[in-house]
């Protein structure tokens, strides 16, 4: 799945300031939330749900330039890990909060993804490079004043995840699944260089996005990871047909 698909690129973007927080949950709890045709993916007998705040940059169609007011924005996604009937591993999104209304509309319409309008902010509070501390807040529209806040610095040197590790299971995903209003399944590939990850120093975190997705978790995530920026190519979404 790491290999670039042999088809035309439809979009380009850059993912930056990535933080991954993951909680282990019972596989049955995840499976109950999935549409027919998708199956929970596990590591060591556990399923994982994650919260990922990050910054989208230079988002544009493949043959067009980035637009200053449109191509840079913030996202926070809640996700889990699944595979389809063919055994292909990928990501299932419960929500994707975003502070760019145009991006929300386009992703809902053309990618069938559960984007949510939100007020979001990400500021640097000190340091440079891996020593920089990022302070990130997200308030979903319609959720009152409830805010999810994350603050972290990337920590030490970043390296690629080793195959067979939990870190590899969590971040090395190049396929997303989505479902439309009629519960028809779709899959879309992305391509980027493997993430270079580090153990971040996290000083503020929130389980609110998981609660909004219907998951009750106790305590902090079992895994925190930060990742360096990656340049991403987006490929067409394809409908999956029942086998």
Task: Briefly characterize the structure.
This protein is mainly β and 243 residues long.
Q: How many alpha or pi helices? A: 4
Tell me roughly what share of residues is in helical segments: 10-25%
Number of domains: 1
The assigned structural class equals mainly beta
C-alpha end-to-end distance: 21 Å
Written description of the protein model:
There is one protein chain. The chain is mainly beta and 243 residues long. The chain has a single domain (11-239), classed as Acetoacetate decarboxylase-like (Beta Barrel). The protein contains 4 helices and 16 strands. It has a 7-stranded mixed β-barrel. A hairpin with a 4-residue loop joins strand 5 and strand 6 (89-98). The model has no long low-confidence stretch (mean pLDDT 95).
């Amino acid at each position: 799945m790491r290999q670039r698909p042999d088809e035309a690129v439809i979009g380009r973007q850059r993912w930056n300031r990535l933080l991954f927080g993951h909680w282990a949950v019972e596989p049955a709890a995840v499976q109950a939330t999935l549409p027919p045709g998708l199956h929970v993916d596990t590591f060591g007998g556990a399923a994982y749900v994650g919260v990922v705040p990050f910054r989208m940059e230079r988002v544009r169609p493949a043959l067009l330039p980035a637009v200053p007011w449109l191509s840079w924005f913030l996202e926070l996604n809640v996700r889990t890990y699944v595979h389809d009937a063919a055994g292909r591993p990928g990501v299932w999104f419960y929500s994707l909060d975003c502070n760019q209304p145009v991006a929300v509309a386009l992703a809902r319409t053309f990618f069938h993804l559960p984007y949510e309008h939100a007020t979001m902010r990400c500021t640097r509070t000190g340091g440079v490079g891996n020593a920089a501390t990022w302070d990130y807040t997200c308030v979903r529209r319609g959720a009152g004043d409830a805010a999810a806040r994350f603050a972290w610095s990337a920590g030490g040197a970043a390296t690629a995840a080793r195959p067979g590790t939990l870190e590899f299971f969590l971040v090395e995903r190049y396929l997303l699944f989505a479902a439309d209003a009629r519960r028809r399944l779709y899959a879309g590939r992305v391509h980027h260089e493997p993430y270079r990850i580090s153990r971040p120093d996290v000083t503020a975190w929130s389980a609110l996005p998981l609660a909004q997705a219907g998951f009750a978790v106790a305590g902090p995530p079992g895994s925190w990871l930060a990742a360096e920026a990656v340049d991403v190519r987006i490929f067409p979404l394809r409908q999956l047909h029942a086998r």
